Amino acid sequence: MVQCDLMESQKLDERKELIRVESHRPFRRAAVLGAGVMGSQIAAHLANAGLQVLLLDVAPQDGPNNSVVEAAFKKAQKMRPAPFVTDKTARRIEVGNFEDDFERIGQADWVLEAVIEKMDIKRQVMQRVERHAAPDAVITTNTSGLPIHQIAQDRSDDFKKRFMGTHFFNPPRYLRLFELIPTPKTDPGLVERMKWFARVHLGKGVVIAKDRPNFIGNRIGVYAMNRSIRGTTDEGYTIEEIDTLTGPLTGRPKSATFRTADVVGLDTMVYVSENLYEAVPEDESREAFKIPDKVRKLVDSGALGAKTKKGFYQKVGEDILSVDFQTLEYTPPAEMDLGDLDGLKKISNLDERLRALYRDQGRAGEFFRDSILDVMAYAARRVPEISDNPADVDRAVRWGFAWEKGPFQFWDALGFEQVLQDMRQRGLQLPAWIGEMEKAGAESFYQGRGRRRTVYLPGRGYQPDTPPEDEIQLNFIKAEEEREVWKNDEAALLDLGQGVLLYEFRSKANTLGTQVMQGIQQAIEIVENGDYHGMVIGNEGNNFSVGANLGEAALAAQDGRFDLIVQAVNGFQATVQRIRYASKPVVTALHQRVLGGACEIAMGSAQVVAPTESYIGLVELGVGLIPAGSGSTHMAARAAESAANEFPNQVQPFLQKAFEAIGTAKVATSAQEAVELGYLLPSSRVVMNAARRIYVAKQEVLRLSRQGYAPPPVRTAIYVLGRQGKAFLEIAARSMQQAGYASEYDVYLAERLSHILCGGELSGPSHVHEDYLLELEREIFLSLLGQKKTQQRIEHLLKTGKPLRN
Fold first, then answer.
1. Is 512 left (phi over 0), alpha (psi -120 to 50) or beta?
2. Residues 518, 523: Cα–Cα separation, whole Å
3. Which of 53, 265, 506, 508 is the most buried (most CB within 10 A)?
4. Is the dihedral of CA 70, 72, 77, 83 positive or negative?
5. What are the counts of helices (DSSP H) followed by strands (DSSP E) for the chain?
6. What is the C-alpha to C-alpha distance for residues 570 and 777, in angstroms, rounded to an integer?
7. Is residue 293 a contact partner of residue 163, using CB atoms and an 8 Å limit?
8. CB-based contact 109:139 (threshold 8 Å)
9. Which pLDDT tens digit goes with each residue over 208-241?
10. What sections of 588-685 are H helices per DSSP?
11. Residue of 65, 85, 68, 84 lying closest to 76 (CA atoms)
């Protein structure tokens, strides 16, 4: 009886977890009104999410009625970075025009208006939308700053209940921030539905913004950018110095300030700032949105950034020049006068690095203190005007501008009392709620760790600030020491709960060295011998992994220690095979770059969970090698398994696709494309939101276990094509060389690859055991590592980070 009670209690706990995960009815058909730069890219991203999309724009006075929308659609298909996750995704979009097709919006359950940023035009479009939209359709306007409530002010109460603002950041596929702006009339239930759909199906980080000019992200982000630009125009710093101080050194993207402005477009930056200046007459700091005359002269000269090939920077040959604001001429960068930044860069912990820079008494520290104090004080003054929640301000800046920390997180990192004292010494204005915090004895904006984290809300004190239940953050898991089951110097095994463990890489740049690979085998041993359902392999590094540790292999080859290399290759293959044939499911949760050996780990897994923004590939030929961690074997086997039958002419097209992908070191530009290239199976779980990947992987482990998991049968009869297949592939490689796409050594490498994919020197099509192909992998990998040109490629990549074509 006690055992039954325990079982019922466990089932109840599991049901509770499922109940806590929010769910709503997804959108399936959308109509996007306006096919400009934003409208066409939003339509593309909705198609990426699986929606059928109707894209409409005006009919021109002359020419075919669809000429405007078709031109915009074609332009979107050629954009780089690509708005579509695969070329096939574009087929989900139908185009039309406002004259002939407007009534078709009645078929959509989401109507999104993205026409020109003019209030009268938006109101006219909304009048037509109300006549034709389905009675239960959600209606949104995409705008970067127009008052949302005014766009719908003449519409009915029923319309206003279904209406809200949705602000995508450009480019919509890649930038995570999605600002949702309800009006007082908007149905709260529909706000929750839109928030859920954007997070789960569009892959967005969602913040609820107030209907104030430029909402949250741009209000703070543009202020911070303008403050940094004035460091050059008004304070004597060079463009390169400012970009150094507002880049990765301080937890911001490599594009920093001026490179970001060049990408966005200087004319766009000016437009946004000018609009903000006019829209916020009551803002005590509105003068900060005035564009400096020096920048305006640059724009007037036609230097608009990347689109005109010159802005703040200009590339001339291999040289990157920057503008001299005195002459508007482009000159080579001057030597920076910022002190010992190398010492700061060696501090890996961002909080410690920020504090060290804040204490610096040179020009670097002076700019950082003055600028960050100004931005933090401005952010504090905007609460509660633009948001009631400082955490949402931080999230908007992080997700919209790719900062590692938002302004209130900066404040906490530098020390609440220290920053407050320095602000007062400089006479920076602060809102009353900061003083209330101080009187209450608060020492930070955030308190607690993990799911017990809270944030200070003005007038309410500390309130919970936890992520959704279906987003597992490893930092939260690691904050609880009892979750660590096992570890070595480069990896750890963590308890995710419900009988699922997670193996986390902790090596430098998540490279797959000996300790990481041996650790996987030890982790599987623990899972198999314990009371566990299975294991997830995943991490929260910048990339899942860029592959094996080439430095280890290169050093061993230089020292003539081929015995170590043989041991490493054998060990890598054995580990991937151990993953594949584990008695309990091993599910890999990928993200960002998944290259070489990392791709092979995924291939060996029982299941893969890959966010859309996963860039996956077997890239070994780029360094003069072949995939030898079972990747070549997997691709050969998958080619045969994909064919309708075992006739050479049926297998050949799939083998050719695998050969081209590996032979050109092709990296998929999305998880969906990785499926098309054969790196991932069609059964792989592709998720739009990378923050959900570990949760979904955990659920896949539970699903597989509860369905009665057993590992796949050993591949004892892989169908390979022998010499005839090799000849066909080698002809293709020679054709690439004749067309100028491959060197003589590339062709040699391709021939070595075809040797494996087709089963070596077999005289004709045959069935071979997987061990036979694995042996071919090892032999050819080792022979190539001894080649001078391969060693040159490896050395060049390690020194420069760029591939060498020799």
1. beta
2. 9
3. 53
4. negative
5. 32, 25
6. 10
7. no
8. no
9. 999 999 999 999 999 999 999 999 999 999 999 9
10. 597-604, 631-642, 648-663, 671-677
11. 84
